[in-house]
Amino acid sequence: MLKFGQHLIKQGCVFWESKLSFAFVNIKPVLPGHVLICPKRIEPSFTNLSPEEAVDIFQGAQQLATLLKSHYGTESLTLVIQDGADAGQSVKHVHIHLMPRKPGDFANNDDIYGEIERVDSRTSGVRSDEDMESEAQIYRELVKEMGITSS
Q1: Given a cut of 90, is residue 150 above it in pLDDT?
Q2: Which of 84, 91, 92, 122 has its CA 20 to 30 A from that of 49?
Q3: Which of 7, 71, 93, 95 is catalytic?
Q4: How many other CB atoms are found less than 10 A from the CB of residue 41?
Q5: Which of 124, 102, 136, 97 is nearest to 113 (CA)?
């Protein structure tokens, strides 16, 4: 199992992995397709990532953004890093939220940022392991079909 801050991430929820990073489905997604990518090394601050880790996580995010846009039939995607408590970071481990976007998914486009914090703070409504593993399997198949590589 990989660690995301203090949380253990079951391998069945991981759908992409490189030498330095991994991507997994979100237990409390804001929108369909909301996934996370983070470095394997637990580091709270983006500015403390090594240059290799920063390149790796962003190359992975770029490849997975292409996958998510294709799978969800959208041209837009929101990527978010909350770096520190004052920025809304709820898990002390650098991570990028990738969220496919569609027209009208929020009345005010920037409402998504408040929704991330609202969803992160709730204690109920988490997804089942089976649901997350099923979604991750779909993405693993797409990673393979699309020839997405790890660095």
Answers
A1: no
A2: 122
A3: 95
A4: 14
A5: 97
Tell the residue number behind the tokens 């880790």, with chain if given. Answer: 53
Q: Look at residue 1 and tell me whether its pLDDT is greater than 90.
A: no
Residue 98: other Cβ atoms inside 10 A? 24
Q: Which tens digits make up the pLDDT trace of 71-116?
A: 999 999 999 999 999 999 999 999 999 999 999 999 999 999 999 9
**Is 7 among the catalytic positions?**
no
120, 125, 131, 137 alpha-carbon torsion, rounded to 10°: -10
Tell me the C-alpha distance between 51 and 1, whole Å: 25
Q: How is residue 120 written in tokens?
A: 């992160």
pLDDT in tens, 112-121: 999 998 888 8
Torsion of CA 103, 33, 106, 89, to 10 degrees: -140
Q: Which amino acid is present at 117?
A: E
Question: What is the residue whose two structure tokens read 């940022």?
Answer: 113
Contact, 4 vs 24, CB < 8 A? yes
Q: Give the single-character DSSP code of 103.
A: T
